[in-house]
Specification:
Catalyzes the formation of phosphoribosylamine from phosphoribosylpyrophosphate (PRPP) and glutamine. The protein is built from 18 helices and 23 strands. It is of the alpha+beta class and about 475 residues long. The chain folds into two domains: about 20-255, Glutamine Phosphoribosylpyrophosphate, subunit 1, domain 1; about 270-460, Rossmann fold (3-Layer(aba) Sandwich). The model is unreliable at about 1-15 and about 335-340 (pLDDT under 50).
């Protein structure tokens, strides 16, 4: 392809993979909402758009709920947490993967229906939500959000003789795609993971109660004991009669855990499917060094998700590891964007270089992924300005070529840099001396200690669950599409 750098820069400007969501739940603890707050704080990396907590107040016999836009620390304070009384609660941090980023779509979603009071927090994408919603609306259902998660509650509210557990199981049998979710009722908490196990979900214990989390790192913060991962296709019910497990699988499904959780999204101190995330990333770096060795003076990570892959590259290659990029951890959600006063401002405000470490050096830069290429290009410019003699880019996953429909907001595939340029042309566009992507086979090998199979659709286009070709983030907000959906 003969696209100029400026045209590519315009095309890929907004192409960046975004976070997904995080869920957390507590049963049987006097400080349930406070523990949920800290659990969400540990899961903040999974979503920064909104946060919410719902709890059941046994004295008032109703749900207390508080949701807001922004980070967990911005949404909640001592006053709001003290209003969330009860010994069980659920929480959610959100990045919108279906539906706009508005307070209306913040979770948990709380409803009162024929099955009683229910609150739901969901991580993942339901790929048949549009068809289910159209069918329910034709029967008279009135939706309050444009989130795919709400269809689960509407399915549960349909008139049947089943109890809450039975209606929850039947609702989940009708939805397709990815869901790791927690449900709060007046009598207890339920948790479920889709039959393919796209998104992580784990079970823990604290004193005489139980906790459920998207990742184990949240257990460490509140001193909870990790018990096990919730299995793909498993539903957990926790109430006065204890903990019970049920199976959602009517037929055997292959596991399809999102491998990008290991590459980028999950926190390095989390353990998923028997494999520590930081260990997986170190092994990716080692494999990358075997595939693309180069004579250099230092290995520099792109913080934070590139740290451990760079460490693995350094260990394998015996080239010194040096964290020359310094990250500003105090960036707000918005800032005033200058015109041309400060070049590459959006990059420089996040990462600054220790120039003395770079000057005259042959530098290997290790990043977790290159999706749009604009920030990687700006980093190379910064390294050259700092006096780097050579800049070699190494990426700890294969090129991204396909969108994710199971809970990650990837950009349109036409905007992905790897779909516009061959690797050698990407290298020229970025201004690097060389570039190397981890191969698919090496990525799988690096994660071989996990007790699961993987979804690699964003790299291969091999989707485990079929979806409508019109599916995108705002599908439930296009009324004309819902009206014509067949």
């Amino acid at each position: 392809m003969n696209l100029s750098a400026d045209k590519i820069l315009h095309k890929v400007k907004n192409a960046r993979p975004r976070e997904e969501c995080g869920v957390f739940a507590v049963y049987g603890h006097t400080n349930a909402a406070e523990l949920t707050y800290y659990g969400l704080y540990a899961l903040q990396h999974r979503g920064q758009e909104s946060a919410g907590i719902a709890s059941f107040n046994p004295l008032k016999l109703h749900f207390e709920v508080f949701r807001g836009m922004g980070l967990v620390s911005q949404v909640f304070d001592t006053h709001t947490l003290s209003s969330l009384q009860g010994t069980m609660s659920i929480g959610h941090v959100r990045y919108s993967t279906t539906g706009s980023s508005t307070l209306l779509n913040a979770q948990p979603i709380v409803v009162s229906c024929s099955k009683g009071d229910l609150a739901l927090a969901h991580n993942g994408n339901i790929v048949n939500a549009a068809s289910i919603r159209r069918e329910l609306e034709n029967k008279g259902s009135i939706f309050q959000t444009t989130s795919d998660s709400e269809v689960i509650l509407h399915l549960m509210a349909q008139p049947t003789k089943e109890d809450i557990l039975g209606s929850f199981i039947n609702a989940l049998k009708k939805v397709k795609g990815a869901f790791s979710c927690v449900l709060l009722t007046r009598k207890g908490i339920m948790a479920a993971r889709d039959p393919f196990g796209f998104r992580p979900l784990c079970l823990g214990k604290i004193e005489n109660g139980y906790v459920i989390s998207s990742e184990t790192c949240a257990f460490d913060l509140i001193h909870a004991e990790y018990l096990r991962d919730i299995e793909p296709g498993e539903i957990i019910s926790i109430g006065e009669d204890g903990l019970h497990s049920y199976s959602l699988n009517e037929a055997e499904h292959r596991k399809a855990f999102c491998i990008f959780e290991y590459v980028y999204f999950a926190r390095p101190d989390s353990n998923i499917s028997g494999l520590n995330v930081s260990k997986a990333r170190i092994q990716m770096g080692r494999e990358l060094a075997k595939l693309y060795p180069v004579d250099a003076d230092i290995v520099v990570p792109v913080p934070d998700s590139g740290n451990y892959a760079a460490l693995g590259y350094s260990e394998q290659s015996a080239i010194p590891y040096y964290p020359a990029f310094v990250r500003n951890h105090y960036i707000g959600r918005t800032f005033i964007q200058p015109t041309q006063l400060i070049r590459d401002f959006s990059v420089r405000i996040k990462l600054n270089l220790i120039q003395q470490a770079i000057k005259g050096k042959r530098v290997i830069v290790v990043d977790d992924s290159i999706v749009r290429g604009t920030t990687a290009r700006a980093r190379v410019v910064n390294l050259r300005e700092a006096g780097a003699k050579e800049v070699h880019i190494r990426v700890s996953c294969p090129p991204h070529r396909f969108p994710c429909h199971y809970g990650i907001d990837f950009p349109n595939p036409k905007s992905l840099l790897a779909n516009q340029l061959a690797p050698e042309d990407i290298c020229k566009y970025l201004g690097a001396d060389s570039i190397g992507y981890l191969s698919y086979e090496a990525m799988i090998k690096a994660c071989s200690e996990a007790h699961t199979d993987f979804c690699t659709a964003c790299f291969t286009g091999n989707y485990p669950v079929d979806f409508d070709p019109n599916l995108d983030k705002l599908i439930l907000e296009r009324r004309s599409f819902l009206e014509n959906f067949s």
